[in-house]
Each structure stands twice: as C-alpha cells, then as structure tokens.
Amino acid sequence: MDKSDLDHPLPTENGSPATQGEQFINLEAKSRLKTTVTISLEAGASLDLIVRQVDADGKPVSLQRKSFTNAIEPHAVLEPEPPIQAEPTTPNLIEEQAPARKPTWQGWLIGLALLVYLVTRFIGLDSYPIYFFTDEAVQTVLAADMVRDGFKNYQGELLPTYLVNGGQYNLSTSVYAQVLPWLMFGKSIWVTRGTSVVISLLAALAIGLMLKNNLKSRYAFAGILILCITPAWFLHSRTAFEVVMAVSFYAEFLYCYLQYRQEKPKYLFAAVGFGALAFYSYSPAQLVMAVTAVLLLLTDLRYHLKNWKTVLIALGITLLLAIPYVRFIILHPEENLRHLQILDSYWIQAVPLSEKLGIYFKEYLKMLNPLYWFIPNQVDLERHIMKGYGHLLLWSLPLYVLGFGVMLRKIAKPEYRLFLIATLATPAGAAMAGIAVTRSLFMVIPVVMLTAVGLDQLMQWIEKIKIPRKILIGVIFVGLTICSGFMLRDALVNGPLWYDNYGLSGQQYGAKQVFGEIKAMLKENPKQEIFISPSWANGTDVLARFFFDDPLPFVMGSIDAYLFELKEINPDKIFILIPEELDKVQASGKFKTIDVFRTLDYPNGVPGFYFTHLQYVDNAEAIFAEEETARMTLLESEVTDPNERVLKVSYPNLDMGEVSNVFDGDGSSLIRTLDTNPLLMQIKPVEVFELNQISIRIGGTASTVTIRLIAADGSAEQELVKQMPESNDLRDVVYSFEKPVTVEQIEIEILNPHDSDRAHVHLWEVSLN
Fold first, then answer.
1. Tell me: the pLDDT tens digits for 535-548?
2. pTM score, whole prediction
3. Residue 67 in contact with residue 13, Cβ under 8 Å?
C-alpha cells in the first residue's frame, strides 16, 4: 500500500471528519492485492497509522505515517435517543474485510497462458507426433478390456494395481484415466491423446501457481509459456505416454508441498495424493518420489515436527494409498526383478556392488549434464527428439543459469530449496536403466521453474531503468506466445520430414493411415479378404485392436508365411506389404502375379505400404519341396573371434547378415534366419579353450535360449536354459560358470515360442569369455 492507494473520503489529517455529527468514522485503504482494511474510530478517538511497503525480498521500500482524529464529542448529538442496549464497542477496533475475490491481472495472464498451452497441444494433435505408438494405443485398449471384464485384468484381479503392457506390469493410473473418456467418446487418437493433454494441464497450472503464490513472481504466466516451448515437453505432452501424467502429478505434488511449507498445513494431504498418483503412473517415478520425499523429510524436519499432527495424518493417508502397491507385491513378488530383467539393467548382472553403484552414478550424472538437455543429441531414439532442437531450448540456458544462481542465493528459503531437491531427485529413476528422455522427463519441471525465476530476476533489473512493467509483461507474453506458434507450425509442417526412417527402427509411421485405408475398403466390401504385415511397428496387434473391434476383420502376419509354405491364395485377396517385404516377394521367383494397385506413401513421398494381389507360379509345389530339403541342412563357416580364436560354426540359412557378425565384438551387427525357428548354431573351436562365461545378445522378442556344452574331458553334456520375456530393448543373456569349462563344442538354440517354425530369429552377438 502506498499513498496513492488510499481511497477518500477520509477525515482530515489531525482534524475532523468531512461530515460533522458522526459518532464513528470509517477509514478505508486498499492495497494493490485488493485487500480492504476498514478502521472505525469512536467519537473523540484518534489513530496513528504507519504504512510500510516492502519488496518481494522483504526489504523496506517506503515508510509513511498518518494521524486521524474523530473530533466529535461522545454522544454530543445523539443523547435524546431512547436507550437501546447496544453491543459494546471496542475502542480502536480494526476489522479486516474479505470481499469476494475478483480475478487479478496475474490471474488473467495465467488463464490466458493456460489457454495458449491447450491450443498449442490440441491443434493437429493426431498429426504430430506423426506416429501413433503402441504404448499410446494400449492405454485405451486396456481400459476398454478392463471395463468389459468387470474392472478385472487378464489375470482376473479386481481393480488391479498394474496392468500388463509388453509382457510386464507397468501401466496403472494412465489406464484408469482413459476409462471415462472411452465410455463417453469411444476409441480415437484425439480422445486418447486429448485425455493426456488435459491431465498435462496440471503441470502448467502448478508451474504458474508456484511462481505466483510461492515465489511471488510478477511474471508467473511466463513459466507456463516457457513450458509450452520446451521441446521435450512439447513433443511428449502431445502423446498419451504415461510419463506425461506422472510428470504432471509430480508438478502438482511440488506445488502442494510448497503450500504446506508456507503455513498451509492441509495442503500436505493433497501433496500425498498427487505423489501417490505420480508413483503409480510410471515405474521410474517410484524412485523419483522416494528420493524427493526423503530429501524433503530431512531438510524440513523442524517444520514437520512443528506440524506433527498434520504429518501424522498425512502418514496415515500415505499408508492407505500404499495398500494397492503392497497387494501387487504380494500377488507378484518377482515382478520388480523381472522388470529389471526386461530392461536388461546392470543391477541384475553378475558384477560387484561397487561397480553397479559406479554405473548408477555415471548414468545419474549424465542426466544432470546441461549438454544432454540443451544441445541437440543422438542419444535418444529419433521419435523422441525434435530435430534441430535440444530437449530444452538453448537460448533459455542463460535464464536457467541466472535462476539457478538466484536459487543458490536464497537456498535457505524452502520455496527455492525445493527446486534443488527436485533437480537432484528427478534422474534417480532413469539411472536404474540408463539415460533416456522419457525416463528423465521429470527434470523439465525444476528447469522450467528456475528458467522462469531467472526471467523474473532479469525483468526486475530492467524495471529499474524505468521501463514500465506493463510493457515488459506485454512483450514477454506476446513473444513467448509467438514462439509457441512457430514451434507448433514447425512441428506440423516440417516435423513429418525431419527423419526419413519411417519403419520399425524409426518413426513407426502409418497406424492411422493404413488402418484408415482398411476401414474404407471394408466399408466398400465387408467380405474383402485382407492380409497385412505387422513388421512396420511394435505391437501392431494392439494398434489393430485400437482401430477395430474384436474379432479383427483381417489377418495380420508376415509375408514369409507365403514365401516358405505353399498356401491357397484367393485372386481377390489384398496383401498390404511394406517395401522390404515387396522386395522379397519379387526376388523369390515364386509369384507369377504381383499386382500393386495402390500405394500409401510416407510423408516424404516414398511408398511405405503396397496394396497388392499375388498368385503363385505354376510349379510352386516343386519349388517348396526342394526348399524344405535345403532348409534342414546347416551351413558351415570358419570365423575368428575378438580373442583371435578360430571357430568352426554351423548355422541355418540366413537372409540378413553374415555369421561372422555374431563374433565380431560389435553389439549392433546381427544375423537373421531365413525361415528357421529355432535358430540352431554349433560352435567347434579349432583349439580347445577354457570357458568362464557365455553372453548372447538377442532382440526384444520373447525367447527361450538354450546352451549345451560338450567338455573336452568327456564329462557329461551340460544344458542351461533361460526364458526371456518380451521387451522393447536388446538383451544380453549371460551364463556364468562357477568353474572354468574346457569346451570341445558349444551348441546354441534360440527359440521364439510365440512364432511359427518358419519365422525369423535374430541374433546380435555371441561372446565366449
């Protein structure tokens, strides 16, 4: 409050009220925060009023003193009035009125910033990212299946804590969040992604409120707009990946905790609720929440003890919210270990604990490295990167550094210390498996907050050179909004052309497009036979169930089924093939008719799907019989491994790579069987040697890996078997022996149990140590 804020009429200073004869006078003053203070003076009373104005840091800015007197004699005019029993009046009574709150300019700006956020998420939501990934589709598919089955999972558990995706229990909150939207609107990319966008609004709101209510920033809206143009968040907040919800709930947890920490105890209950939602939403969030909670407990211990009753109630709520997780652990005691196995985490490898801790902190520090966040990198999969952008905008780095400095200078204040704690906690979960932007996306929240703090500090300095705050606010709002618009346009117009690998190892483009074509064909002819390749994306069976109800009105499978076994083909049957499969069909020599009557192009204009009619050659039966005889015969070759040992290797026919790829020490080179499942490989060293460990690198397909060892001393053959569940990553299957084995022959068998005996089997590397 300052001198210009005082509203009249007021009594004259050191004098009488403007209207004579009043027994009480009211003094009203309004601050810029719209707080009204009414002071009532009895007749004959006086008041000295001191007004002290401070800045955001609590430093005095101005000090004013005013004196007021109500000079009327007590009851000088009103004595003739009949006696009325009135309530006793306390002299010099000061009452604080709380009128209905009206939106402040800060509130309006935050509201407009949230609107910008929503607009830049929803425009073209089904067009960028250009893929619709199986990890998005599965959220709605599982929600629909769960409702169909009476809110039970496939294992019959009522209201399951986690549901299976990709062979592991890793989905929870995100599936439940899709139930109501699916019931209301059905399955569509807009609904599935839109649900995630609406929930992600919590992250934007939390950032705005933390800046406004906790840090007292005059530019709170800017934090929301900075989040809008943070590339890692821009991309992922337009998907239905469960990490988006987890990060959003984590942001709300931080806001509610700050409210609790600033003398609003009941907010701790909300913090516990949002923390639990984050915990259940995404597996890396479990460790992020645990580390955050421990650090907050230790750093704010005195405050917690002061509010011990509130903390005890919050602890009780925490225990209640932990019941679903305890139930899950009881029902699936091996699942956490299995999850690490699927990720091929170093925590389950046979290495010393000190080495594991060293790897952990090495990965942890990678995700604290500003170069990883602000400089465009090739570490992450290209479908998680906006080409030419870092995960965070490079030009925002100076503001982040400035904000980090402000945080360190005010580290004693909990509202600043919290963001150092969040910065240290957010990589904790990702470091368990390895660096990846999805696993470490939580880092976006403290970085955006500190960037906004840096911007606020910069604006405070600029204000001192007499540039009006309104102008600065306008420039920042308009500037960041324009940046959001340009980023949206860049993503929608140029994003489809940023990368040209649209297949399985790249963008996995085509779900919306190819299934849309199939819908159109079936609408025209419901009895049309259609065969489509699944090899262009992960989990195409899930994608198919997202776009079509059960049973599927088409068949999904590899064209290899027709290349390696004679099958009846209806002349009108449509085969939808990817380029690699069309090449195989043309090179096989088994088809006299290969009629490509339509293509579905990738965004760069190159055909990505071929709609074809096929017919075998007349002597196809004889060709297949001859191939079957050759298929069962192993080829032989001699290779040299990285230890300069000469090995004689027998192996099946290959359609990808040379057998030497398996022994070259390069984990990225591979072989693939032409049509043999299982892959059988016999290894005979020219000179026998001692073997301590065998490591076999395989892909993500569920596999049974068997090794058989024939020792040189004639002892009994050893057979070791490992079952490997489905995964999205390459895995090393490691066999370690208690005592060295001098081997004469090693036999390796890799079976993909979910595929037919005419399927491909991939093998990346065999290391004999």
1. 999 999 999 999 99
2. 0.76
3. yes
